[in-house]
Amino acid sequence: MKVIKVGLLGMGTVGSGVFEVLKNNAAEISRRAGCTIQIGRVVVRDPEEVRTLVGPDIPLSSDPFDIVNDPAIDVLVEVMGGTTLARDVVLAAIAKGKQVVTANKALLAVHGNEIFARAREAGVMVAFEAAVAGGIPIVKALREGLSANRVQMVAGIINGTTNFILSEMRDKGISFDVALAEAQRLGYAEADPTFDIEGIDAAHKATLLASIAFGVPVQFDGAYIEGISKLAAEDFTYADQLGYRIKLLGIARRRAEGIELRVHPTLIPARRLLANVEGAMNAVWVKGDAVGETLYYGPGAGKLPTASAVVADLVDVARQIEVAPESRVPYLAFQQDQLQQVPVLPAAEMETAYYLRIPVRDEPGVLADITRIMADEGVSIDAMLQRQPSEGANTTDIILMTHRTVEKCIDIASRHIEALPSVTAAPVRLRVEALD
Amino acid sequence: MKVIKVGLLGMGTVGSGVFEVLKNNAAEISRRAGCTIQIGRVVVRDPEEVRTLVGPDIPLSSDPFDIVNDPAIDVLVEVMGGTTLARDVVLAAIAKGKQVVTANKALLAVHGNEIFARAREAGVMVAFEAAVAGGIPIVKALREGLSANRVQMVAGIINGTTNFILSEMRDKGISFDVALAEAQRLGYAEADPTFDIEGIDAAHKATLLASIAFGVPVQFDGAYIEGISKLAAEDFTYADQLGYRIKLLGIARRRAEGIELRVHPTLIPARRLLANVEGAMNAVWVKGDAVGETLYYGPGAGKLPTASAVVADLVDVARQIEVAPESRVPYLAFQQDQLQQVPVLPAAEMETAYYLRIPVRDEPGVLADITRIMADEGVSIDAMLQRQPSEGANTTDIILMTHRTVEKCIDIASRHIEALPSVTAAPVRLRVEALD
To answer: Which residues of A touch B324 (CB under 8 A)?
Structure first.
């Protein structure tokens, strides 16, 4: 039986998961793949830490280029993370004609165009199922399963940390800070949670999804990114009253003028499956012109779920290693010379519906002033909620939901509303997606 | 650019959808596939009916073997249905070295072992994404996306007709007969609905899912099949009160002794995503040892969704046509010589939890008698619900939910319960799956 030798770069959570899955399910994987996939070399910063786990038979060292320079290694599995050394090692491996499997979303979102171009010249694969939504085979679904479709929109809960925090805030009525502390205590959030809570990790993944869905180069720089740290407990209450849930979505949407690529807290109708994805789970909703809507749900992170995706890529690579490069599934789902240079639209041109929470003094005429401003900017109102002022207070909130409109109209309307004498602070703005 | 010529057998709903998708999305598909996929011949019973749609340039006739005998045709797309003529045509095409794409679940569930064996001898592909859950790329997810996993269980809502009927029964509190008539009026159910409502269609699909998930030959004959026609409105009420929904599931479960392959109405906890799949939509839940639980949701039927799956298969076939057969993804996910002869367990050995609705006279001691019988058979009770008799009546229902147990124990307990003097009719039995 053919043997494929893997060089494993990184033995943290994901790396040790890959090691474990390849070992535990070796027989099942061989029965499927028709070949044997073996770890042929392991590189970690501190080899002593993992020597017992790796065992005496597998070469173990600390220099990533040991994998690059080992002629016995067919495939580099990069699960080290980072975008500097990881880039150098991946490019060097490609230059040596090695196949690459990576779970590194940041690397591909930032350096993907360069990496895919070099890989194409070298005729090697770069597989990255594990880079988006962990164990969910969403990259395969978009690249292959939905290949008959002109994809119109992708919207995903693609960061488990923030979904956990949002679920806690809604279920327990707690503040963002308390929910974040809870997530950190349980290991769902890191000590420095910036990448997750400010939406950067989700934007890396949305960038890759957009490229695969639409056949465009990766354009992380164009993404609009807004995290969840400014959400208030009352927004969850109002959303519930309106029949919505708040989720951090990564959205890629195709429009005639270009693509929208955006990450932000989003109100979703509570009846939609995506609105009911709770805790650290991930889900990606895809709308295509032939298939209609489909949804893919599962664990977005974790040792074995992520390893599941890495090893599935290894099986694909093992099968395709002798196939002519032009017959393989292209890196970004579309043949590399067929990628279209479609721009990412600026935030002002984004088109969606809006939720506005407007803090006002409870005075006659304020609602009339607000609705007149909205009408003047061509924004049509879908629903309205006005809270009674609490006992003794004379301020309250007006909550408006609009129909779909262009962001710049909301920008202008918001400025005018904020300038009204009865309005006590800038309106809080959240976006709404019906997913229909 | 390489051209792949397709012989399209059948121009009903699915066939005309395939025609439409290949035409409308030709550019997008070529950008992905790196080749052109063309309809090279169409065969239908009555060519005159579709001549305008097909146009003057594509040969059109009524003899299926015209496709088999046309040396210009690379791939047979069989969307004609049936298991007799379809079998002959598919086997003849394979013998001529043509690739096959089919949406025909009945054909593969019944004749799959023969068809796959012949295809293997001839070195051709048989792709069937459209045969299970329409537009959802579940075959690809199981065969490739989850290839690192030892799959433990698959449970799917894989028949849209019955899911529509069950959604209507619950939402509107109507009887099965009324809901079926509504489904027929809306085109969700056929004039003779037997295949759908008695679970046979779902069992065909579950048979294929079991083979792909576990790497076993297709074993439709071993499937336990129970439809939805005997469900009563009160079962939906009781299920709701217990926090459950009733869905027709196709289930394939791996156990040490063999596999369970079964289709039956099933209570699912209302919080699970699968419990919230409504109307004619489909969804498949998969549990694997590495990935944990994943779920795939989308339209299970319809012209364009099914065509989406057929055309995705065509893209796969086009890419793989020059690849050595042993490097391709195997028909049933596992290499053909690695399929395991694992038996399907008989119904008496199935292991699940149960819902029992027991019609009783409202007399002292009846509950004690029932619980004693359950204890004697080793069945442990998880929850109980007793309805007050309606005004003037002296009969009522006792509803029991058990912990997981073996079906034969429930068989014996049910017989003993039915023999109790206070019990007025045979207990109604539904199965319960927690999906955890």
So the answer is: 322
